[in-house]
Amino acid sequence: MKKNFLILLFTALLLPWNSMAQNSKLPPDWAKKAVWYQIFVERFYNGDSSNDPKPENMYNALSGMVAKDWTITPWTQDWYGIEPWAAKNGKSFADNLQDRRFGGDLQGVLDKLDYLADLGINAIYLNPVNDAPTLHKYDARNYHHIDVNFGPDPVGDNKIIALENPGDPATWQWTAADKLFLKLINEAHKRNIRIIMDYSWNHTGVEFWAFRDIIKNREKSAYKNWYTIYAYDDPVTEKNEFDYLGWFNNKYMPEIRKTNLSSAKDFFHPYEGNMDDGAKQHIFAVTKRWLAPDGDVSKGIDGYRLDVADFIPLGFWRDYRTFVKNIKPDAYLVGEIQWWMDKMMPPEYYANSEVFDAVMFYHLYRPARSFFSHADNAINAHQLADSLRYQWSGLEMPFRYSMMDVSSTHDTPRLLSCFYNHGKYKDKANPYENPAYKTGKPDAETYQRVKLYLIHQFTNVGAPNIWNGEEMGMWGSVDPDNRKPLWWKEYTFQPETRNNIQPGIKTYDSVSFNQEYFDFYKKLVHIRSSNPVLSTGEMEFIITEGKMLMYKRYDKNDCIYVIFNLEPSGKDFTLPEKGTFINLLDNSKVKGNKSGLLRYRG
User: Fold this and answer.
1) What whole-number distance in Å separates Cα of residue 430 and Cα of residue 413?
2) What share of the chain is helix, strand, coil (3-state, %, to 5)?
3) In a designed cystine with 370, which of 59, 275, 379, 548 is the match (CB 3.0 to 4.6 A)?
4) Could you give the dihedral angle defined by the CA atoms of residues 473, 478, 480 and 485, in that order, rounded to the nearest 10 degrees?
């Protein structure tokens, strides 16, 4: 199958989109020029083995502690292999997934900042780094501290935390992990890389200090209104009657109580109300702590990614935006809203001047996958253009440009596996629900199709996001297989079981850093960053016939044409201009209307 793509630049003068003074009602100017890189710290890089997790740091009141002979999993182990401690205790691969730790930490992120700078990244989105017992850390133990195992002194940090009154910000101290995080912010800023943190203000973990106080003091707890408590434990009975609302009925993540509700929660519409004021003020204090450490915004982060944002009433988010923008007007707020079902939450409810600067825009990826991959629900170029226009239609222009254009994240299959499998997006996208799901190394056509999609992602409206490891050529189904430790080139990995948990004869794939794939990503990042019109220009579709797609990004000074041919054979097309062009991939001269990645020299 022959596939062609073309990018044309018709002027040499490069000027940014009409800029305007920073206004808290608008997204920050820098957001539309961002190239995001999302980091899941526990699986990113182990820069300090002395702080590796221990069973006591993973304790959870609901599940207890891991096995006494538990050990950290070697970074280079076959992902589908069974650790000796797990096998000894009769655990299967699926049984021990949540107990696995590989030791990724903040020192690992610091060690790889130059790698990210070389790739061309200028914005980092960190999955939660707040203190928490799980590997994903959406079950906070403390909002106001970095996880002790991400810093250099877990034992000392726990002693510092124990001396605080967590309900009183005046008593908060900076732990060694906190200080290392502040160093990471500083080092990133030196490289012109911004950082945002991921928080779930919707729920905490059962180890969260306020929730533990409720368990201890029951009705007398000063924090009893922070959560929806159905019943307290009666100490005179053997049974534990304590009951409360857990997010999505997950009891290990108790949900913070919503107040002043004037409309019911709906999966695809926002709802009005607010949040318990005590919890709200704590959240505001934590928010300020990281935006302006010790009152200095220059030392702080550049914004927040807000988890399950549509589970929190809009009244809270309006107040939150005002609070954040008063501290740091150019802070970036991006929300996660419902996106994993056939029907998606309309983005305009949340990406606007009252709520967020952007949402994680999965809405663009789903139709693009149906166009660029060999999906069962394939669409043509006209349908793709129509789908993209529809998703943009409700958004004011500045918010279209500030969107975080995601394709793969910690919640989705990796791009290569998503394209390799032809079923519906996110529907049983794993071998646990679908034994036919292909989890091994994709075929050559998949790599080519993903490359074509990436060209689209990096020339589309909105800021592209890279899930850590995609640029290394990693594959994997949805969680947990998308959270493998990253394939750094300095490591030698054990071969990975291709048909892993499925029955039959086992075969293996070699696992290693894919330099050719990395170089392709790097080139796309460079092309986007060095051509501002790709970040700030308008977009117009020119050809949408069958599997032929052509669009342009333009402003009054520049114009870039992008052409894709996914037809089964080559196609002739007429260029809008005549002249000599330079192929941006290899700087070779091209005449006429041959396909390639081209720049007009005139």
Assistant:
1) 8
2) 35, 20, 50
3) 379
4) 10
Which one, of 242, 266, 244, 239, lies nearest residue 255 by Cα? 244
| pTM value > 0.70 | yes
Structure tokens at 452: 């074509």
Q: Are 12 and 384 in contact (CB under 8 A)?
A: no
**DSSP SS3 for 163:** coil
Q: Give pLDDT tens digits for 187-239.
A: 999 999 999 999 999 999 999 999 999 999 999 999 999 999 999 999 899 99
Maximum CA pair distance of the chain? 88
CA atoms within 13 A on the CB side of 305: 29
Distance CA 255, CA 250 (A): 9
Contacts (Cβ under 8 Å, ≥6 apart) of 96:
82, 83, 86
Task: Give a three-class secondary structure readout of 79-111.
Answer: CCCCCHHHHHCCCCCCCCHHHCCCCCCHHHHHH
| pLDDT tens digits for range 535-561 | 999 999 999 999 999 999 999 888 888
Between CA 119 and CA 521 the distance in angstroms is 8
**pLDDT 10s digits, 64-73:** 778 888 999 9
| Residue 244 token pair | 């409360």
Asked if omega into 480 is within 30° of 0 (cis), the reply is yes
Give the CA distances from residue 385 to residues 372, 504, 553, in Å, rounded to whole numbers and listed in that order.
13, 43, 14
- Amino acid found at 480: P
Helix ranges, 503-572 (H)? 515-530, 533-536
3-state secondary structure of 411: coil
- Give the residue among 124, 127, 114, 110 at the shortest CA–CA distance from 35: 124
What single DSSP character describes residue 44? T
Reported as a single tens digit per residue, the pLDDT across 268-283 is 899 999 999 999 999 9
**φ and ψ of 528, to 5 deg:** -65, -45
Triad 157, 158, 161: Cα angle to 5°: 90
For residues 409 and 36, give the distance between their C-alpha atoms in angstroms, rounded to a whole number.
Answer: 12
Helix (H) or strand (E) holding 509: strand 508-509
Residue 586 binned pLDDT confidence (cut-offs 50, 70, 90) = low
Partners of 229 in beta bridges: 244
